Amino acid sequence: MHIALVNGVRTPPSPGLRGHCPVCENETIAKCGEQRIWHWAHRGKLHCDPWWERETTWHRHWKNLFPEAWQEQLSRDPSGQKHIADVRTPFGTVLEFQYSAIAPEERRIREGFYGNLLWIVSGARLKTDFPRFEAALKRFTPSPYKDVSILRFPEEYFRKAWLDSSVPVIFDFRGVDAILPASKTKELIWCLLPRQFQRHVAVAAITRSYFVEAITSGHSLMDHLEILERCEALVRKQRQRDEADWNARFIASVRGKRGYYGRG
Question: How many domains, in total, are found in the chain?
Fold first, then answer.
C-alpha cells in the first residue's frame, strides 16, 4: 500500500519510516528499495484486507492522477467491515484499479460493498487482450451517440469475468509503457457499460484527460442507463427489420417455387 498512518497522519513511504495500517492498525514498514516501487508492508507479510492486490507501477500511475488525499481511503459497510478503496472521491465515486484476474464472486461482492464504483482494468497484462479488442473494433456498429458503439457477441472480445458486471468497466490497453509508440486505440480508454441486451453490449471511447477531469470535478461520465435504453431499442428495431426482411424473402422464395412447379 502507498499510505500508512505515521503518528496518526496519512503518509507515503520514505526510507526508515514505520507506521500503522489504517485497516488493522498493525505495524507497517516502509519498503524503499530499487527493484519495486516504494510501498508500505505489514510486518510478517500479513495482508489484513482480503481484496489486497500487489501494487504495480500501473496501479501507482493511475492513483497519482488523483489527489493523494483521495487515495487508499478506508471504507466501512453498515456491519463494520473495512476495506481500502484505491481512490474514493469527495463526491462518493470509488475507483478500483484491477491488474490481475479476479474471481466473479469477489467482483460482485466488491461492487455491492462500494456501490458507486468504477472499475479500471488493465488490458496490457495478457498478450491476447489487445488483439481480441482490435478484432472487436471491426465489429462495432454505430449507436445514437457519437462515441458509443454497439458490439454483438461480446464474449468473443472481452474477458468473460467482466461481462456481467453491475457497474461500468473501463479498459486501459496502453499500460505504462512509454517506450513503444502507442496507437490511437491505446491512447483512449474503453468503457464497457453494464448489462447486456440481446447478446449485445455498448462500448464508449473516452479520452484519459476527459475521464480524469470528470472524476476530479464530480461530473458523471455519462448517463449509461439512457444510453443502454436507446442502444437496446436500436438493436430491437434492427432485429425486427431483419426478421421482416427474412420473412419477405422466404415467402417470395416459396411463391417462386410454386410457380416453377405449377408450370410443369
Answer: 2
Which triple of cell numbers denotes residue 63? Answer: 492513483
For residues 89 and 34, membership in a common domain is answered with no
Q: What is the mean pLDDT of each run of 10 residues along the chain (264 residues)?
A: 76 78 73 72 66 82 93 82 90 94 92 94 91 95 95 94 94 75 85 93 95 94 88 87 70 67 48
* Residues 5 and 59 both lie in one domain: no
CB 72 within 8 A of CB 3: yes
250 close to 258: Cβ distance less than 8 angstroms: no
Give the span between the Cα atoms of 162 and 96, in whole angstroms.
13
What's the domain range around 16?
Answer: 1-48
